Sequence to fold (128 residues):
Amino acid sequence: MTGLFCPPAASTCRASRLELQEPTLIYPGKQGNTCATAQRLTLTRGIRFKADRLRGTVLGIVPLTMSTRTIPALPLPYLMLTDVEARGVWARAEQIEGPAMLLGTADSCHPSADNDPRDRVNEADVVD
Fold:
């Protein structure tokens, strides 16, 4: 993540770029959960986001748990979190890019060695 800033009186944070490696996004619904997975998602231009809880490691070393409400109101030019689990996330960006995204039921987004959903993506599944 680059250009992170969480203004003290605002309910959302801003960033200039947010890159997610191998994200799995779960959307709860009345008929069951829907999910999306991709190799990478990159959000740019006009990013606004909030999260009730972010848990991961800073630079792959230091464990960290926080919400966007607890991030100090100091601009951070660069922040790298690995092994992130997020809850209560809302995000908006003017541009989202990602190769070969798979949308499906929640059980189709948990890849195993023999069942990686990215192996099943074909041209009909790709949305530009």
